Amino acid sequence: MNQIAAIAVHAFKESVREKVLYNLVIFAFLMIGAGLVLGSVSVGINDVALVNLGLSAISVFGLFIAIFIGISLVWKEMERRTLYNVLSKPVARAEFILGKFLGLVLTLVVNTAIMTVGFYAVLWFEKGRLGAADLAPLEAVYFILLQLTLVVGVALLFSAISSPALSAVFTLSLYVIGNLLGDLRALGEQSGAALRALLRGLTLVLPDFAALSDIAPAARGELVPGSQIVSHSLYAALYIAALLSATIVIFERKDLR
Amino acid sequence: MWAVEITGLTKDYRLGFWSRKRKRALDHLSLAVERGEVFGLLGPNGAGKTTLLKLLLRLIFPTAGSATMLGRPLNDVRVHARIGYLPENPHLYDHLTAAEFLNYAGWLCGLNTVTRRDRGHQLLEQVGLAESAGVPLRRFSKGMVQRLGIAQALVNDPELIFLDEPMSGLDPLGRRQVRDLILNLRRRGKTVFFSTHILPDAEMLCDRVAILHRGRLQGMGKLREILDSSVESIELVLQDPAAQALEALAPFALASVRTGDRVRLELAPNSDLDAVLAAAIRAGAHIASLNPVKVSLEDYFLARIEGSGSPATHGQADRRGAERE
Predict the structure, then answer these.
(1) Which member of A167, A173, A207, B48 has the lowest number of beta carbons within 10 Å of its beta carbon?
(2) Residues of chain B with pLDDT under 50
(3) Are A87 and B59 in contact (CB under 8 A)?
(4) Taking the model in full, what pTM does it have?
C-alpha cells in the first residue's frame, strides 16, 4: 500500500509539472469564458448555452489531459528506463500499475476541480447568484470524471502494449465508438442475424461512454436520479477493474529490455 | 547460505516483427555468490552481464533456469527491500531534484519520512552531491547521474547490492570514491555483485570473478588464486653484476636483458631459488630484487575470451568456482 501511494504521488507530481497540462487548462478557461459571449448573443437561452459550453469544455479538455497523461506516463517510464529504479525496489508490477492509475486519477480530479471552479465562477458572474438548481452541472461534472477515469484506464492498457501515438489513436477511437453505442445498437436491430450478433457483442464489450454523459440534462437544470448515479458509478468501477486487470496481466509478462 | 544462487539460467530474446527469430543472450549459466564478498562479473560488451542482472531483478524473465537471492526465489519482490540495484547508465526523473528522487526511492523501499530524509542527506554527502540536493536532475552531468544512481541503490541500506558498470561516466576522483564506497560496503559485511569490463577495477575490488562471453560462463574463481597460481616466470634483477656472476647464473636464466647498470634475468617459474640465490651470492652479485611475474587479470580474461571458440564445455563450471578451470 505504501508503495502504491508513493507511485501515485510521484505520478501526480510528474503530471502537474508538465507544461502542456497548464496550456490545456488555460484553453479550457478560455472556452468556459467564451460562454459569456455566446450567452449574450443567444436570446433566452444564455444560461443553457453557458452550461453546455462550460461542461463541454471541461469534458473535451479533460479528455485531452486524460489521453495525454494516460498514454505517456507509463510508456515514458519504460522508454526512459526509469522503471528499472522502481521495479528493483520492493514493488510488484501490479502495484506500479495501480499507483500510476491512482496518480493519474488524482491529476484528473484536481484538474477537473479547478476547471469546475472556473465554470461556477463564470456562472455566478452571469447569473449574479447560485441556487440549488445549479447543482445539476455538478452531477454532470461527476459523470465527466467517471468518463475520464475510464479513458485513463483504456489509455493505460494501450500504453502497455503499443507506442504513444498508436495508444492515443486507439484510445480516442474507443472513446468515439463508446459515445456511439446507441447508434450501433440501432444499426444492429436493422441488420441481418450475423451482423446483429456481432454488433450486440461489441456494444456489450465496449465501454459505454454515452451512458455516462449528462451534459444536456444538466444544461436544462435536470437532476439525475440517485439510482442512476449509483448504477453508472458501479458500471464505471467494474469496467475500470477489468481494464486494470488486463493491463496488469499484460504488464506482468512484459520484458523490460 | 548463498547471497545469490543461479542454476541453468537461460534467456532468449525474440527478434523480428513476428518474434520468430531468437537470440540467446544467456546460456545455462550457473554460479553462486557468497555472502559478504565482492563478486565481479566480467565480460566484453554484449557478453550477457546486463541481461543477467536484469533477470535477477525480474526486469526480464528467464527462458529457462532458476535463481535465488538471499534465499528467496526471484518472483518474491519483497526481497528487493534488502537489495540495491544500479542499472547501467541509469536514467532518472528530469522533473525531480536529487533530494526528491532519493525520497521517492526510499518511499518505494517502505522507509518512513524521517529515515528517508536522514538517509537522503547522508547518501548525498557520501557520493559528493550534498550541494546539488535541490538541483533538478535534468541539469545533472553524466557523472552526477551515476553518483545519484549509486545513492538510490543504497537508500535502503541493502544486504546485497547489484552494480551494473558502476564506474561508467565517472572521472578519476569519482572512480576512486566509488571504489572506496564498495570497499566500505565489504567492510560492513555487505555483498556486492558488480559487472564491469574495466579489469583494473575488478582486480582492485573483487574477491571472486566470473567471466562471461556470448552468454556463457568462461571461468570463475577467487581472484587471489587466479593471480597467485599464475606465476609465469621469476624476475631476478642484479645491480651492476660482474661478467663472472652472469656466467654463474646463465644455466638458470631463460633470458637476460641489460638496462643501464642493471641486468634482469628471467627464471623459470619452478626454478630452485635457493640454488639460484646461492650461486649469485657466491659470484659476488648484488641482488636488487627478486619477484614472481604473475599473469594479470587482463591476461586471464583475454585467454578465456580468446579460448571460447567452442565454449560449450566451459559453461559447466563448478558453481562454487573456487578453483580455476
Answers:
(1) A173
(2) 310-325
(3) yes
(4) 0.83
B153 chain-A contacts, CB cut-off 8 A: 88
Helix A181-189 to helix A164-179 angle (10° resolution) is 60
Q: Do A81 and B104 touch (CB under 8 A)?
A: no
C-alpha cell at B145: 547521474
The parent domain of residue A218 ranges over 2-252
Chain B residues 266-285 within an 8 A CB cutoff of chain A: none
Q: Looking at domain B2-227+297-316, what is its CATH homologous superfamily?
A: P-loop containing nucleotide triphosphate hydrolases (3.40.50.300)
What is the rounded (10 degree) CA torsion for A92, A98, A100, A106? -150
| A257 in a structural domain | no
Which of B79, B91, B109 lies nearest to residue A82, judging by beta carbons? B91
For residue A89, the distance in angstroms to the closest alpha carbon of chain B comes to 5
Which chain A residue is nearest to residue B94, measuring alpha carbons? A14
Q: Are residues A84 and B104, on separate chains, in Cβ contact within 8 Å?
A: no
Q: Which residues of A touch B60 (CB under 8 A)?
A: 255-257
**CA distance linking residue A61 with residue A75, whole number of Å:** 21
**Nearest in space to B98 (alpha carbons), one of B143, B139, B132, B142:** B132
Q: How far apart are CA B191 and CA B4, in angstroms?
A: 9
Domain count across chain A: 1
Q: What is the pLDDT of residues B12-31, one digit of tens each?
A: 998 876 767 888 999 999 99
User: For the domain bounded by B232-293, which CATH number is listed?
Assistant: 3.30.70.100
Same topology between domain B2-227+297-316 and domain B232-293:
no
pLDDT confidence of residue B154:
95
Q: Is residue A60 part of a domain?
A: yes
Domain residue ranges of chain B, discontinuous segments joined by +: 2-227+297-316, 232-293
The ipTM is 0.85
Find which of B77, B92, B115, B155 to mutate to test the A interface (most A CBs within 10 Å of its CB): B77
Kindly identify which residue of chain A lies nearest to residue B81, measuring between CA atoms.
Answer: A90
B57 in A contact zone (CB under 8 Å): yes
Nearest CA in chain B to A99: B108
The Cα B296–Cα B231 span in angstroms is 10
